[in-house]
Amino acid sequence: MLMAAERPDSLIGDEVVRTLGQQAQSSQVLAQVKDGQVTLSGDVPSSEAKHQVEAVVAAIEGVRKVVSHLHVDSGKRSFGAPGEAIRDNPDGRDDAQMGDIDLGKDG
Question: Where in the sequence does UniProt note compositional bias of the Basic and acidic residues kind (predicted)?
Answer without folding.
Answer: 85-107
